[in-house]
Amino acid sequence: MNDAAERIATNIRKGVLEFCVLAVLDGQDMYGLELADQLGKKHLTASEGSLYPLLARMRDAGSVDTRWEAPDGGRPRRYYAITDLGRAQLEMFASVWWEIGPEVDELMKERGK
């Protein structure tokens, strides 16, 4: 991907990352590195450095809760869980996405005709 295309992709990712986080957490609670790995597999986040500040903002806003857990007596990890508010936000995002996504797709298909 060239620089211009990467800049566009980065801007799109920034715009939807919060809702992608909520979608992943809607399936199960995860600790930060696990969440970063899941999003990275989908090419939805560039780095953990962009994810952790977002998670802190989401926690402050009430869309995720956190808890500390030490699996198998190991090192404690902060787990993130979607809240009822987060689910409501995710549902709203989904309804908007399904409405405007096809419109954007249509514009891209029609351009230059």
Automatic annotation (TrEMBL):
Segments forming a coiled coil: none
Pfam family of the protein (one): PadR
InterPro entries documented for this protein: Metal_resp_DNA-bind_regulator, Tscrpt_reg_PadR_N, WH-like_DNA-bd_sf, WH_DNA-bd_sf
Domain of life according to the entry: Bacteria
Start and end residues of each Transcription regulator PadR N-terminal domain: 21-91
Protein known as: PadR family transcriptional regulator
